[in-house]
Amino acid sequence: MRLRLIGDVVFTTPLIAALRRAYPDARIAYLVEPAAAAIVLGNPHLDEVIVAPKRRGVRRILDDIGLARRLRRANYDLVLDLHGGPRSAWLALATGAKERIGYDIKGRAWMYTRIAPRAKDLRPRHSVENQWDLLEAIPGWPGGKPERSRDRIEIALDRDADARMGERLARAEASFAETAAAVAGGNPRRRIVFSSGPSDREAASRIAADTRERLGTAADRLIDLGEFDLQELRALIGRSRLFVGGDTGPLHVAAATDTPVVGIYGPTQAVRSAPWRPASVATLSVERDDLSCRPCDQRVCVHEDFRCLTGLPPSAVIAAAEQALLGRTA
User: Fold this and answer.
1) Residue 313: cis peptide before it, omega within 30 degrees of 0
2) pLDDT (mean) for 111-128
3) Helix (H, G, I), strand (E, B), or coil: what is residue 79?
4) What architecture is domain 160-325?
């Protein structure tokens, strides 16, 4: 089970494949919350995806009681709590599974039958490797250590979403091709598509308007595809020549593709959160290494200026993007 955020769930997909490889005849279910369900729906190594409701107040309590009963009826032999939060720890206990494995977190470790160490502070170790500690806590774990070339991020490509994205790209490219060929500068084939979550939509619109103004006569290179869901986002990135983004869910969705990636890191560190993928796939990171305050909890900037991001020059990101487009990894 892995509750909450999209990127966190993405980082668990190598573990799913490793479990299937180690236990080919097992029945494997995954418990996830609605926002990140699309990441594991259609995963070829899973037999079932259970979507935990995420409502508020009394309804949350009633939902969790019903969910706990469902999980107990399933008679699981083993539960892996890849989250470690109060809700997931309680649900793990409620399953009644003979083996319940989770992190050694004060106040919750007693809910598990076996625990894996978890550092209290942020450390320069990738999240996939941190979560792999839970696999290694399985008695007689035969799956070995994680390998980037073998244990890749995996998000099933939804064929319908891919077809929808293809149609939207085709419609956008028709008008782009008609105008861009005449006005484009250095490379008339390049187009830009913005993606954003609901909370970022207004900011994305302002950025898009500014970008078009800067492009001038080449403004049609910025394509507006409207809103799209996670599966369509995965399809879009898979069709793209380059993805550039911060350390959020879409960056980790991009890790499931072979599209070159440029990740931008502020409070977080690339060594911990960079896309988990083979070294042969162009993956570049842009971050400041001269700040003693990194990493931090991201909620409050001690300097009040978020210099880890505001101090990153656009030229560094542009240079990394050009490098990634050439397929270079360093």
Assistant:
1) no
2) 88
3) strand
4) 3-Layer(aba) Sandwich (3.40)
CA 256 – CA 325 distance, rounded (Å): 18
Distance CA 234, CA 308 (A): 28
One fold for 6-136 and 160-325: yes
Q: What is the 3-state secondary structure (H, E, C) of 7-39?
A: HHHHCCHHHHHHHHHHCCCCCCEEEECHHHHHH
CA distance 87 to 69: 15
Name the pLDDT band for 138 (thresholds 50, 70, 90).
very high
**Domain boundaries along the sequence of the chain:** 6-136, 160-325
Structure-block tokens of residue 244: 């550039």
The answer to whether residues 241 and 259 touch, using CB atoms and an 8 Å cutoff, is yes
pLDDT of 330 reads 63
- pTM here? 0.80
319 vs 31, more confident: 31
Is the domain spanning 6-136 CATH 3.40.50.2000? The answer is yes
In sequence order, what DSSP letters do the residues of 62-79 get, joined into one string?
Answer: HHHHHHHHHHHHTT-SEE
Nearest to 127 by CA among 91, 100, 153: 153
